[in-house]
UniProtKB/TrEMBL annotation:
Domain FIST as annotated: residue spans: 33-228
Signal sequence region: none
Coiled coil: none
InterPro entries assigned: FIST_C, FIST_domain_N
Lineage of the species this protein comes from: Bacteria, Pseudomonadati, Thermodesulfobacteriota, Desulfobulbia, Desulfobulbales
Domain FIST C-domain: 229-365
Protein name: Histidine kinase
Superkingdom of the source species: Bacteria
Amino acid sequence: MLRTAIGFSDNIDHCQAITETLDQCQAMLGATVPQAGIFFTSLLDGDFSFFLNEIKKRYPTIELIGCTTDGEIVPGHGFVEDAVALLLLASDHLCFAGGVARDLSHHGEDALVTAVEACRARLPGEPSFGIILPDGLTTIDLPLATMMQRATGSRFPLFGGTAGDHYRLQTTYQFHERQVYSDAAPLLLCSGPVTITSRVLTGNEPIGRFYEATSADKNILREIDGRPAADFYRELLGSYVKDQAISQLPLAIYEFNSYEFCLRDPWVVDDQSGTVSCIGTFPERCRIRLTSISREDILRTAREANEAILHRHPGGPPELILLFPCTSRRHVLGSMTNDEFAVLFESEKAPPFFGFYCYGEIGPPAEHRPTLFHSDTYIAVGLSEPS
């Protein structure tokens, strides 16, 4: 059995907030000693080192990772912000090992390989799945999917999301044990028998014809159909090409000879160079389409993902659901944000759920597929330990 405890607090007194969170976890666990913990916070003026030290003081042996967010997701409340949230995990048969890859923007691929190998060395068997929480700003021009596949294997089930900073878009922070980082990727690997169900869905619908990305470098679109990418955007989107409004209209990216797509959020339109910078990198050759989005489509895909996890998980509902939705979905939904979790609130059999709103989402699009980096998606992961 996978035992979990989840605590959260939005107390304005940060000392009381972490104490309340830990007390809630303690009440759920009783005498059980947790093996691993995941800590999320959108309290960007909080003392992160203090929070981590308090957690490790209460549970000195846990493998602890975490990050800052654009809002946490916890049972009984759904979306919360300006809060701290902690998930603790315990099992008789699963083992956990945490690590961190540092200096991603300069040594990302090698650092990630080293961190994964260090975690593997501390596990009694081959890992079953993993959670990863990279920096959400310093990695926007890195090929995260390629880096992760090289580090863990092309078919390894790795899930997570990139850290946020309450949509300030300045600096995100990542946590491992008692240490606070930026430009890093904490990860938690698990070995032992575990049943996993996941769904990766987006509400964005591709519209219009295909265009060719005739020139792209990492995360920068230079030319679309032989024209400066900035001209393409201004002609088709007009006044939406300003501030952060453009990020709500992602591109569907298709590799040649494929009709499967992933999404990339436009970030900056540079009229001087004629380029468009996006969150996430592009294949060497690809086709693109514009997409449309509505609140109805966002909520529909969240409902489909949650229902699939609840009703199609082998052996009945999972013992824990992890959620990694994109922050752009939250900003489109506004006051309807908690409707993304309506199925989980309404179901009598819904297990505990825990997650955060990410700047980018990480997970395989289907079982036995490579782990990819996504934008504008809703990722739900069901976990249970077989009897």
